[in-house]
Amino acid sequence: MAGKSDRLTIFMYPWFAMGHITSYLLTANKFAERGHKIVIIIPPKAQSKLGALNLHPQLIQFRFISIPHVEGLPSHVETTNDVAIQGQDLLRHALDLTQPAVESMLVGLKPDFIFFDLMHWLSALGRRLQIKSIYYCTVSPVALGFMFAKGPSIENIIKGPPGFPRSVKLYKHAARDVQWMGTAKELGSGLTLKQRLMTSMCDSDAIGFKTCIEIEGVYCEFLEKKLDKPILVTGPILVQKTQANNLINVDDEKWDIWLNGFQSKTVIFCAFGSEAVLEQRQFEQLLLGIELTGLPFAIALRPPIGFETIEEAIPNGFKERTQERGVVDGGWVPQQLILKHPAVGCFVTHCGYGSSWEGLTSECQLVLLPHLADQYFNARLLSEDLRVGVEVEKGDEDGVFTKEGVHGAIMAAMADDSRIGKEIRANHEKLRELFNEEFEDSCFDNFIQKLRSL
């Protein structure tokens, strides 16, 4: 616990996507455990979802900021959950317009550090106010490193940047996502997403990642050399038992009761986060591939494109064939609690950075089905570099997967006689042994020491 004279005051302004905000709040809890004060900017409606995760309300303060009006952005939009991915550039532009309000807060608060995400202008503002800025990135060092690929061509993106560790190679359809980030200009700001990221990296005093050297050290070293500035790592920051208990409600207990009906390590859990929306054909192939395994399953997905509810999108006859052993849910589910249940043996994940870490620290076998952007890099890190998961095969050009591909990846990960399964289980177990409370605390204490050295 820091003494009063040693306490830091940290101002956090995450991108308004729930995964990003939650990541910042979990980090804030780590600071607050050590007696430091944190102010986090969030949209007003998010407080009801985040309150249970704030373990130190006496030290972690939510500050609300209104979304400025931007032509084309509906008035109800506060987070990326409220708008299609095509409209998120307008939300970024709207948050750029909060600069005067943020400056007023900073002048009054006089923090030691600013932690920011996609608000690339915060470093310049911090310098003017003599406040150190940390680009606290919620994607992996692997993904950020690919921003240095030479030129916008697909071939150069697939090759990766010069000097980049070669264990990560992209499909063509994934490389097109990276290409889009460097060429598509946002409505309103006129910036590309790559320009935001590069400005955030280059103008900040340091870059922080929610990872550890044991997992992504070579990629951190690459960025440190490329940018000639400190790369700081917090270690894994996950929902702790106290927080998980706070999140439990009556609706969540139904999952525990349902899972109790199955044998140990037999249930497939499939979840794609709060924002991934599949096309109908891919949604059907995913469900049918899981059905082919013959194993019990719990699937949590948003309704596919063009559908209001999950029920109307489920393939004909699927429910009748699987009702004794499976459930498909279109709402929010307590992912951390489900992954910890002894009946769950396989996690089919879209490889969001937070979900990747939750899978890595669980006892479940990992089946990787990235959907977009940085998820492809996370999948390749887990499957090719660390070799702790099996990636579902996709078409190189179109990114399409089949039910046979889903079935094959799950069985390769779970079957007792699978050579690949034995390898990934052994590798996964070795890494998981690292992640205890003592390791996490040591990583974060080192992170704070390096912050102070700035």
Question: What does this molecule look like?
Answer:
It is a single chain. The protein has 454 residues and is an alpha/beta fold. It has two domains: 4-236 and 436-453, 3-Layer(aba) Sandwich (Rossmann fold), CATH 3.40.50; 249-432, 3-Layer(aba) Sandwich (Rossmann fold). It contains 20 helices and 13 strands. It has helices at residues 18-33, 47-50, 88-96, 99-109, 122-128, 141-145, 154-159, 172-183, 193-203, 213-227, 241-247, 250-259, 280-292, 318-322, 335-340, 353-360, 375-385, 403-414, 419-432, 437-453; strands at 9-13, 37-42, 60-64, 113-116, 132-137, 206-209, 231-233, 267-271, 297-300, 326-329, 344-349, 365-368, 389-391. The strands form two sheets. A seven-stranded parallel beta sheet has the order 3-2-1-4-5-6-7, sandwiched between helices. A six-stranded parallel beta sheet has the order 10-9-8-11-12-13, with helices on both faces. Helix 13 crosses helix 18 and helix 18 crosses helix 19. The radius of gyration is 22 Å and the shape is globular. The mean pLDDT is 90. This is Glycosyltransferase.
List keywords for this structure.
454 residues; Rossmann fold; seven-stranded parallel β-sheet; 20 helices; 13% strand; globular; Glycosyltransferase; EC 2.4.1.-; UDP-glucosyltransferase activity; UDP_glycos_trans_CS
* Unreliably modeled segments: none
- State the separation between the terminal residues, measured CA to CA: 20 Å
Overall CATH architecture of the largest domain: 3-Layer(aba) Sandwich
How many strands? Answer: 13
CATH superfamily of the largest domain: Glycogen Phosphorylase B
Strand fraction band?
5-15%
Helical stretch tally: 20
Instruction: Calculate the mean pLDDT score and round it.
Output: 90
How would a crystallographer describe the biggest sheet? Answer: 7 strands, parallel
State the name of the first-level CATH class of the largest domain: Alpha Beta
Q: In the CATH scheme, what's the topology name of the largest domain?
A: Rossmann fold
Number of domains: 2
Major sheet strand order: 3-2-1-4-5-6-7
Rg over C-alpha atoms, rounded to the nearest angstrom = 22 Å
Alpha-beta classification: alpha/beta
Classify the helix fraction into a percent range: 40-55%
Shape descriptor: globular
Family: Belongs to the UDP-glycosyltransferase family.
Pfam family, one: UDPGT
Protein name: Glycosyltransferase
Organism: Buddleja alternifolia
